[in-house]
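TICKET #2291
ISSUE: user wants both folds in one file
ATTACHMENT 1:
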Amino acid sequence: MRLTGPVRAVVVLLLVGLTWLLANTFFGGEGISSVRQLLGGTKAEPTQSEQRPRKYKCGLSAPCPPKHLAFRLVSGAANVIGPKICLEDKILVSSVKNNVGRGLNIALVNGVTGELLETKTFDMWAGDVSDLLKFLRPLHEGTLVFVASFDDAATKMNDESRKLFEGLGSTAVKELAFRDSWVFVGAKGIENKSPFEQRMKNSKNSNKYEGWPESLEMDGCIPLRPPLEG
């Protein structure tokens, strides 16, 4: 006996429903994609988790090579949102850790082992620059220096403090001015200028916020230094 049109449609719908239930049972949440494959032979669409780009340490888009440290620096936004320093997927400095402050936010890291040595903030608007000088002068060879600005990082800068940062590999510090955004990674004893530095000039014509430029974000991979001989 031949099936009439309406009856045939009902049978097809029942078969599709049964197939969907079986697929959902065996394949879980991928039931709909599996039905499409079973019925039409089409390739299943990628799930949301498959479409999302994979992130690595500190949110990098690619992993760092062996014996390299993954980092991400974010300068403060105006005088509202504090800066952030991430190293090897660990937050060293952030508002959540309650260890940020107006001016320069600095983390010192052992360049051989990647171990955090110290974090400190220096108020460059109303603070004493001598505190910064006492902090930078005795750095040991190979120490990595991570810097993220917040609000104003330059008002209290003097010639010696700028030269100390230049000795760590900075090229932008000599131009650093009132309320500029600045992120920088340098090292004591570096032979060349650091490739890890960004500066955004405070300009009323281009500022993102009223009175402040936009926040800067920088990430990358820093090679660990071989142990010093002797």
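ATTACHMENT 2:
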Amino acid sequence: MRIYYHDNTAEDQRLDHDSGVEVLPEAVAKLGVLAYNFSGAAALDNVNSLAKARGYKNQDVITISPASMGDVYEEKVKTFYKEHLHEDEEIRYVVEGEGFFDVRDVEDRWVRLQLDAGDLIILPAGIYHRFSTTSSDYIKAMRLFKDEPKWTPLPRPCDDNQYRVEYVQSITAN
């Protein structure tokens, strides 16, 4: 997994947008973002153990690519890339392919996490973020849910949202 500041150019979201400034894993951990790599024969066992420990009961696998989504691919990827938050923790495990998760740091800068097969990311409820495929236009990811599968994005701004308020308090308390 590569972690760096986004260069903030408006070019195709699927490009690297690497500013050349690396971000340490400890810095994203302070944002409440947890990142793991589960590769090899025991990868799914490790994912399932983590899911059980965090109270996740359901999962599905989604493939995001032009081949799997047809004509709606471009529109759907643009939707994922709109800045938003969720009221639930978001866990994604990359089974195949690669993708970008961008999260806001405490100074409101974009931090880009490039996830590859075997990488797992946990985003806390209330964090502003966005997702995009890379220029490969392919990712197969496992989504984990505590209850029934749902994906409800709340577009920015929603700073008065209870989960946003709690999230901001959690990262600024230190």
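RESOLUTION: both attachments delivered.
EXTRA DETAIL ON ATTACHMENT 2: The chain has one domain: 2-7+17-172.
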